[in-house]
């Protein structure tokens, strides 16, 4: 007789109740400090209507003002007979037909949608994470293999690098890399920040790679060598593919941590997501709203990474 599967919906209901309870607790906590929520101030930090002033190129007379809905076309007649046509938003029009304007006078403004500071901060966090993650993966793979090398010099140097990086705070490494190495090599703050994050990530990836390779049975390498493969070929075609399946979860966790670690480069004046959030708070005075949005944006980055890693892990497990 087949065992009947217990229904899971009561547990899902319990999860929902717990989350509702946490939300209510947060609301109650903010009510104790008399905090006034101002969510209406937040959207402008994602996208806003930017205004670009349209100015007269020279002293001229306003010949014609042609209004068509929300757009106005202004024709300026210069003293030498030259004409300048300026198109502006109707509600921003500052001149009328027959009037005179001097060089540099504002005729009106044009409006267009522009990305706000939080979106620019998100973009900066994304490209810094991708660049430092790719470099960190290469550094970690090379260092991890050096840790397993029979060459004592490669093994010792890689060990010193890993222990030095893992034994010191990332914040201190960023300061050293920017103010000392960056000054000596004349590096920009972006390059220094990416390099510091890449070296930090590479040390942890190296240990993940080393542990993954050592978890593969020695018989796998011996079998590959018996088939005529060289040591590098057996590592590339036999050992590393198997090790990759085992190290995928910790690698995904390391890259998710890297995305969050990018917030530390704000100390060298890189305006990533966290620094953008702090700047938005100083102008909006909406502390909780901005920080909740910043946290949500980090989740937007990290949750897909977790899902992709989980799917890739399941697919690789099926290929065994």
Automatic annotation (TrEMBL):
Entry's family note: Belongs to the binding-protein-dependent transport system permease family. HisMQ subfamily.
Transmembrane feature ranges: 12-35, 126-148, 160-181, 288-305
Keywords: Amino-acid transport, Cell membrane, Membrane, Transmembrane, Transmembrane helix, Transport
Localization per record: Cell inner membrane; Cell membrane
Domain ABC transmembrane type-1: 122-309
InterPro entries: AA_ABC_transptr_permease_3TM, ArtM/GltK/GlnP/TcyL/YhdX-like, MetI-like, MetI-like_sf
One of the protein's GO biological processes: amino acid transport
Organism field: Pseudomonas cavernicola
Name by which UniProt lists this protein: Putative glutamine transport system permease protein GlnP
